[in-house]
Each structure stands twice: as structure tokens, then as C-alpha cells.
């Protein structure tokens, strides 16, 4: 049964990516997926429940991609430079126009969830926490002290989500990219000052795939 649910979810993700969510109905989606709307209701409860799971799965894939990008970094690059490079690479992935539909869906459902819409409210479960553990581990791997790593992880998540919302609202890629560079400059300057010599050593041990998808 789990495999059937995953196949339906994967198909729904592709459908949403191709067609968006305007005028989406379970009957139309079921026809495209070669199933019945009753099966979609059985697995996901409602259209909103299905869309929440679409968002969660896309977010899980993004965490996995972040872990993969971290593993690709040059182990000889110091922590400050590695953090800056990883931030730029991950931002390039998130800001890809192909991701915009998923991100609009995320913010749309996030708004409904904050209004306690019963169909969207489950999105709040883990919407921040699911990122904090892998991000905290990541920034520690890149040389951030353990005591400040959780706050740095939360700050990074908030900044990136805020910039994504800005990008979706304004379409000003150059302006948003410039803002990201200011954020990177701020934390690299801080870390260089903390290290005392301009380079925080990068400990060994990349983020595991398990922690990135938790």
C-alpha cells in the first residue's frame, strides 16, 4: 500500500509541476494518474491533504539535494568559503524558475495553515523543525560553534524563505541575489572574525543522507 501511495504522490508532483494547481480537482488528477478519486481520498484524505504531501515531498527532496551539494564541496576549502559556496549553489537551485510553482504552492498552503484551515494545518507540523536538525548539523560541519549552530540554522532558513517570497512577489532576481550576497558577506565576516585568522577550519564528516531527509 505504501508503494501505491508513493507512486500516486510522485505522479501528483509531476502533474502539479506541469499544470499548476489552478482548477485542480481530484477527479481530473485521478484520470491523469490512471486511478480513481476515491483512491486519492483513501491515501490523502482531501485535495488539500494531497497538496500538503506534495509540498512535504518536495521539501524532503530539497533537503536531500542540500546534503548532496555539501558532499560535493572541496574538502580542502575552509569552513567560511565552503559555507558561502554551498549557500550560493543551493540558492541557485531554489531560485530556478522551474521550482516557482512548488514554492508558490508552499506559501499558499502555509498561509492557509496559519489561518488554521483544517485541510492545510498539518503542514505546520515540521515545517520549520524538519529543516533545523539537518541545517544545524550542516553548519556545525562547516565550522560554526555548536552553541550557535541551532540559531544560525534557523536564521538561514528564515532568510532563504524570505528571499524566495520576495522573488515570487517581485520577480527581481538581481535584487534578491544581491540581498543574498549581503547575507553571505555578513556571516562570512562574522565567522572570519570569530576564527581570528579569517578562516574557520572545516571539520571532516559530511551531512548524512539520513539526517538530510529527516
UniProtKB/TrEMBL annotation:
InterPro entries the record matches: Homeodomain-like_sf, HTH-type_TetR-like_transc_reg, HTH_TetR, Tet_transcr_reg_TetR-rel_C_sf
Signal sequence segment: none
Keyword list, A-Z: DNA-binding, Transcription, Transcription regulation
Record has Transcription as a keyword: yes
Gene3D superfamilies named among the record's database cross-references: Tetracycline Repressor, domain 2 (1.10.357.10)
SUPFAM superfamilies, A to Z: Homeodomain-like (SSF46689), Tetracyclin repressor-like, C-terminal domain (SSF48498)
Domain HTH tetR-type: 2-62
Name of protein: TetR family transcriptional regulator
Record region (Disordered): 194-214
One protein family per Pfam: TetR_N
DNA-binding region positions on the chain: 25-44
GO MF: DNA-binding transcription factor activity; transcription cis-regulatory region binding
Amino acid at each position: 500500500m505504501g508503494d501505491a501511495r508513493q507512486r500516486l504522490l510522485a505522479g501528483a508532483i509531476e502533474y502539479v509541476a506541469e499544470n499548476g494547481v489552478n482548477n485542480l480537482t481530484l477527479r481530473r488528477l485521478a484520470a491523469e494518474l490512471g486511478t480513481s478519486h476515491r483512491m486519492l481520498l483513501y491515501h490523502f484524505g482531501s485535495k488539500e491533504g494531497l497538496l500538503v504531501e506534495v509540498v512535504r515531498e518536495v521539501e524532503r527532496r530539497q533537503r536531500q539535494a542540500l546534503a548532496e551539494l555539501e558532499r560535493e564541496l572541496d574538502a580542502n576549502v575552509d569552513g567560511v568559503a565552503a559555507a558561502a559556496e554551498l549557500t550560493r549553489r543551493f540558492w541557485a537551485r531554489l531560485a530556478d524558475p522551474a521550482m516557482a510553482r512548488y514554492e508558490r504552492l508552499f506559501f499558499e498552503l502555509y498561509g492557509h495553515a496559519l489561518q488554521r484551515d483544517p485541510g492545510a494545518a498539518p503542514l505546520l507540523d515540521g515545517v520549520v523543525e524538519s529543516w533545523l536538525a539537518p541545517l544545524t548539523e550542516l553548519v556545525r560541519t562547516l565550522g560554526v560553534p555548536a552553541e550557535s549552530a541551532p540559531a544560525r540554522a534557523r536564521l538561514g532558513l528564515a532568510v532563504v524563505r524570505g528571499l524566495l517570497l520576495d522573488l515570487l512577489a517581485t520577480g527581481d532576481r538581481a535584487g534578491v541575489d544581491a540581498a543574498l550576497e549581503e547575507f553571505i558577506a555578513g556571516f562570512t565576516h562574522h565567522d572570519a572574525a570569530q576564527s581570528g585568522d579569517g578562516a574557520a577550519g572545516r571539520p571532516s564528516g559530511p551531512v548524512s543522507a539520513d539526517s538530510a531527509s529527516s
